Amino acid sequence: MSFFGITAATLAKDVRLEWRSKDAINAMLFFSLLVVVIFSFSFDPTAEESRRIAGGLVWVAFLFAAIVALNQTWARELRNQVLDAYRVSPAPANPLFLAKAIGNFIFVSILEALMTPLFIAFYKLRALGPAWELLPIAVLGTWALVVNGTFFAAISLRTRAREIMLPLLLFPISVPALISMVNATTGVLTGEESVRFWFALLGAYDVVFTIACLLLFETVLEAE
Amino acid sequence: MKRGFPILAIVTGLLLSFALYEALMVAPTEKTMGDVQRIFYYHVPSAWTAFLLFLINFAASLIYLVRRGSKADIVALVSAEVGVVFCTVVLVTGPIWARPVWGIWWTWDLRLTLTLVLWLIYVSYLVLRRFSTSSQTPLLAAVLAVFGALDVPLVYFSIWYFRTQHPSPVIGGGGSLDPRMAHVLLINWAAFLCLAALICWVRYLLEIAKREVEEAQSLESLLEGSQ
User: Do A168 and B124 lie within an 8 Å CB cutoff?
Assistant: First the structure.
């Protein structure tokens, strides 16, 4: 099987599993709904204020919710020793990683598509800058969270307290990505500053860590 | 090797006392800040030492990924641990100085934030090592160390975009530092480097002893099981 054949097969399997069980997506949706509601109880912002803080709120909610999906990525493969089977199979490691990352990207994107209207309604948001720019920000930002998240989920598989380990590893490394996403989103919402710098930084983050993940994933997968 | 250790210990002790005397008595009092500025002689050398140790951690992790030798792993572990200690000293002494001089304990300026994020990354590195159940802990830790190091320039640029409030670098930054102060600073840095080397040395020997004991114990339980 070719590289992309394996990627497509694994991705199709993961999407089908998720479609039938809806474990991750339901948990994520309800979790981020709770975050939105609790945030709106904690602050009672005016439209002007909420424009300034919404970028941060949105991404924090998505980041926390994404952890749910990311934790499931590999834990699912531990049952029935699927991961061991993969390890002894002649298939290379990178297509597996890529499929998992793309799968998580799809799940988190669906979450974002469903939650964004709710955010807009609850916080009375209206972008003063060019609103279409939010789309590439969301794509680059989601990939930034998901690519490292998928990788660190594979590392945290080999630890005690697996579920709590992932955010402990992921959050410090994700600081530059978070700063960029939040500032870019706030920049578009308030329409005050150019977001070009944050685009470049997010792009650089994505490229650097995608390459690093692909280079090192085989090492991590074989470590047992 | 064995004789080197007490010699280094004595040199470190002498150098630290001399540096303390220089910092408190010899160095001229700063004109606007007063005596509070003397914390600078501990703050800056600690920061340089911590960054150097993190660099050593990165190099050792890379060497481990290529060669898989246990010595490189121990060096990586030790340098991260001692680096986190020195980084903590930086993060504690900074606010003590900032409160009277800037009037605030903390600000999200470039170097403060970078140091804090570095500290977070290396604490998470140590947490991973502590919580790992795999026999491949060194490998996973080395991978994380590489990710952490790759992150540093990105963190730098992301925070650089904000206004910076920290006094500009004294060395190579165009700032003017009284030569007597620079002299005291370098003596202090030498003393701190010796101290860091000494602690790393002890920790290195301790880790080797610990691994030998663990190996002996697992061998013993294996033998008992086979009887």
Answer: yes
